[in-house]
Amino acid sequence: MKLVVISSAPFIYKKGIVYAYSPYVNELLIWQKHTDSIVFCCPTWRNDNGLLITEVPFKIKKQFVLLDFNLKTLASSCAAFFNSFYNLFVLYKVMQQADHIHLRCPGNIGLLASMVQLLFPATPKTAKYAGNWDPKSQQPWTYRLQKWLISNPFLTRNIQVLVYGEWEGSSKNIKPFFTATYTEADKTPVLPRNWSTTIQFVFAGTLVKGKNPLYAIQLVEALHQKGHDVQLTLYGEGVLRTILEEYVAAQQLQDVVRLAGNQTKETVQKAYQESHFVLLPSDSEGWPKVIAEGMFWGCIPLSTAVSCVPYMLDYGQRGVLLDKKLFHDSQQLIALLQSPTRLALVQESATSWSRRYTMDVFETEIKKILQP
């Protein structure tokens, strides 16, 4: 079987070696195991542009290069108009060769591919929608359009759309799905937490406005001001780092908040294993791997109710849903900290749920899709 993967995720070539976004490569390793050959249709970058990349460790039969584009300025929009015609032609030629078409959405390439795939109703297809599938969420019109195209059973035939979470009113094309980081072999015992010592919070993510790292600091600061022995470590880099450092200094929080920068996955995993809470007050997510990873190692998740997070946290039974109102969120946390019984129940529930979603289970589900 020839699998054609169509994605906005670029390939980066260095000295003849192909690199791509690391989590993407980890997932593709599983897809390629269950195909005879794999063909890619995606843009090429000369540099990694700060992207976390790793080598693609399997043989790629062929890459069909698409032209990257965006609609941010008038000039780029004009270029996008012409690039789109070229990309549409390439997409059509590639889909003609496919035994199975795999789309990666959302994105500009995903939008074009979701249009072209309409011409191939007999070809088996999957679409991995890695963004927020919540029909009530505010999203760009291009995202809404591709969601409508791939989920419409009249227009799009022979497809399974893999989305994060379960949503009312979904069409028969929609398949609730997940992503994973750890394997069954990683299920070592969870380290017991001592709730009478310093309460450790961990934030892992890019230090940008949409992830709200400042709110994470302010939430822990609010607990500190109320006399709680707390500490927050933030892993990651981003444009807000200097602003966050200045805030920590101005509020004299050097003993409470630590910005650790980018660290190895082993270091971050150790932080999950030893922390009490994983904190992500993000504005938008697909499947927040940080939350799932923290839960896997026994952290109680604290996250905003975006995308499938309420589903992941069982609407507050497996963690705390934040509304980004500092007083209310801090009161929720204080109430939880004052109830040892509930702390134990929430932690156990969170860990048990997350450990259901391993790479082994993920591979089994992918195999079912490709070899029904």
From TrEMBL:
<dbReference type="InterPro" id="IPR001296">
    <property type="entry name" value="Glyco_trans_1"/>
</dbReference>
<protein>
    <submittedName>
        <fullName>Glycosyltransferase</fullName>
    </submittedName>
</protein>
<dbReference type="GO" id="GO:0016757">
    <property type="term" value="F:glycosyltransferase activity"/>
</dbReference>
<keyword id="KW-0808">Transferase</keyword>
<dbReference type="Pfam" id="PF00534">
    <property type="entry name" value="Glycos_transf_1"/>
</dbReference>
<feature type="domain" description="Glycosyl transferase family 1">
    <location>
        <begin position="198"/>
        <end position="332"/>
    </location>
</feature>
